[in-house]
Amino acid sequence: QVQLVASGGGLVQPGGSLRLSCAASGSTLDYYGIAWFRRAPGKEREGVSCIGSSDDRTSYADSVKGRFTISRDNANNTVYLQMNSLKPEDTTVYSCAAVSPYGSRWHDCGRAFALYGYDYWGQGTQVTVSS
Prior knowledge:
four-stranded antiparallel beta sheet; mainly beta; about 130 residues
């Protein structure tokens, strides 16, 4: 069983940066697909970014491409989401999710990553972009 803990959210001014962390326990994340999602009140959940079994297997929503970067630190069993040039519309709760390479839901974080199921979810961390 994998437990995920998302952290790093906070209040930042427009144009600022934050780095979110998704730390795992219970299993190593080396080959898991890890995705970040966000959901604003009254809106559909949006897939933000995903990193697959290798570091060059990443996908991003068009709304964050060029501003956000996802990365994996296997030594610390953590996946990061570096968020730069933040905009007020980035304000919402961000959650991370993991899909096991050993289960039936496995996918390798292609462009449609937001449409697939995930095996484990972490709690959310609030990001607020405001002046």
